[in-house]
Amino acid sequence: MFRRILIANRGEIALRIIRACRELGIEAVCVYSKADKDAPYLRLADRAICIGAGPSKDSYLNIPRIIAAAEVCDADAIHPGYGFLSERADFAAICRECKIEFIGPSPEAMAQLGDKVAAKRAAKAAKVPIFPGSEGAIEEEDEAVEVAREIGFPVIIKAAAGGGGRGMRVCHNEATLRASIKKAQQEAKAAFGDGAVFIEKFLEHARHVEVQVLGDKHGHSVHLFERDCSMQRRHQKLIEEAPAPGVDRKKIAAVCESAAKLIRTTGYAGAATVEFLMDDEQNFYMLEVNTRVQVEHPVTEMITGQDIVKHSILIAAGEKLGLRQKDIAVTGHAMECRINAEDPARNFMPSPGRIDTWEVPGGPGIRMDTHVVPGYMVPPTYDSMVGKLIAHADDREQCVARMVRALREFRVGPIKTVIPLHLRLLEHSAFREGAVDIHFLERALKQDLLGPVA
Ligand code: ADP
Fold first, then answer.
1. Which of 5, 210, 230, 436 shows the greatest Cβ crowding within 10 Å of its Cβ?
2. Residues 230 and 154 in one domain
3. Ligand 1 mean position to 76 CA, how many Å?
4. Are residues 346 and 280 in the same domain?
5. Which residue range is the domain that position 67 belongs to?
6. Atom of ligand 1 nearest to the CA of 131
């Protein structure tokens, strides 16, 4: 087992990993940037090492500095969390060269599943349902038009190396498709360092349903069922829940099994999420594979009782997954509201600054994953998420009631957060009915259907 893990991340996920290390009896070392130097969670680590200035390229994305920190503290492993370097196969390869275990998949497995075009190929082989679309990357306009005619408009152009909801273009006709291919390639090259793009069918009505999977280094894999993450703004998730409401359990069981098979057949070790869109007829189409622990992993932890972060560490250390599929059961319903420091009344403008009032809800079935304490300064430099509020109850109705109760207890100031928006969303009939699709939130905001959100 590892003696010491370096955590190459910040904020709530760094704290989440510290907690997992503590419970496993492993020392946790945090790296931090100057923008995070006063962050209180650093005191919970066994050691904290400053790796540079605030901008991510000088710190959390700076591979030589992170490797140097791991060498200085003599860490056996690095946990990348999510975002930053977590999906960089080159980083995983450098860790290997330096004889530091990367807590995640091998660079080869990451390259195979992290690239959307490659992942589709692997998915097809494992009989995971995929989108109708181009088989590989699209080079020329004519190729794109040919595929689009075959699958029908609208189509979406995506970057093979894309992420974070960026690098996608929807095309409703041939003219826009022709005009967009070159631009999309250039944008992809500039944003992700890889100009490869592909096209697939664009679904006007769909829900985002994803499957949590775990694979070990001994060829064994399981799934931990699904999450529904349809409540999104700008392709970014805001509320996630499990199980997915109203989904045919037989259908989803088959999808979950195919996801577990996909990671087994690609020799993937670690935690991963296989993302799908589900259409109105409950057909599933794979979007991509996220080769890391996700923001919304607590939802699955609450309904399965499995600690996904601990599993990721134990798998990296070479332990066998002591879990058989038939032993994993779902208990009740769970939901997560991302608490972002943004002002929903001002087009979600970031609202950084000092948090004077921070009164967090508690009580039965409530979990709060956050690095924030009263007096914490939210730096303007990073992601605006300041915490995740998670509720668990016997069924969906009670879970929603519990989440509403908790959101009403929450007091934050003077910065703005999305808490008032969450309350409106949870009260909305479409959400109550479990009928929210991926475009619901943007539509509701545009048409002013939610009432006051601040
Ligand atoms: P990223 O890697 O940037 O997160 P994804 O491929 O996972 O990109 O897609 C993110 C979101 O974009 C999806 O949850 C969905 O809302 C939207 N999206 C992606 N592909 C499609 C599609 N083919 N049809 C409709 N919406 C899509």
1. 5
2. no
3. 36
4. yes
5. 4-103
6. 23
Q: Provide the b/e sequence for 328-337 (b: ≥16 CB within 10 Å).
A: beeebbbbbb
CA 208 to ligand 1 center in whole angstroms = 8
Identified catalytic residue from 10, 16, 88, 292: 292
Q: Based on the fold, state whether residues 183 and 73 are members of the same structural domain.
A: no
The number of the ligand 1 atom at minimal distance from the alpha carbon of 237 is: 14
In ligand 1, which atom is closest to the CA atom of 156?
Answer: 23
Ligand 1 centroid to Cα of residue 235, in Å, is 6
Are 300 and 412 found together in one domain?
Answer: yes
Considering the domain boundaries, does residue 276 fall inside one? Answer: yes
- Residue 292 annotated in active site: yes
Kind plus residue range of the DSSP H or E element containing 406: helix 396-409
**165 CA closest ligand 1 atom index:** 3
Q: Does the residue 110 lie in any domain?
A: no
In tens, the pLDDT along 36-70 reads 999 999 999 999 999 999 999 999 999 999 999 99
- Are 139 and 26 found together in one domain? no
- The two beta strands, 27-33 and 4-7, are parallel
pLDDT averaged over the chain? 96
CA–CA distance, 377 with 35 (Å, rounded to integer) = 10
- What is the 8-class DSSP label of residue 370? -
The C-alpha atoms of residue 394 and residue 286 are separated, in whole angstroms, by: 30
CA of 324 to the centre of ligand 1 (A): 31
Residue nearest to ligand 1 atom 21, measured at CA? 202
Report the separation in Å between the CA atom of 109 and the middle of ligand 1, taken as the mean of its atom positions: 22
**228 found inside a domain:** yes
pLDDT in tens, 3-30: 999 999 999 999 999 999 999 999 999 9
Choose which residue among 151, 169, 235, 237 to substitute to test ligand 1 binding: the one with the highest number of ligand atoms within 8 A of its C-beta.
Answer: 235
Residue 8: closest CA among 66, 88, 77, 94: 66
Please list, in sequence order, all residues whose beta carbon lies within 8 angstroms of the beta carbon of residue 277, skipping any fewer than 6 positions away: 131, 203, 206, 207, 208, 209, 284, 285, 287, 438
Q: Are 163 and 221 found together in one domain?
A: no
State whether 214 and 281 are in the same domain: yes
pLDDT-based confidence at 396, cuts 50/70/90?
very high
Q: What is the domain-level CATH number for residue 94? A: 3.40.50.20
Task: Report yes or no on 122 lying in a domain.
Answer: no
Which pLDDT tens digit goes with each residue over 76-92? 999 999 999 999 999 99
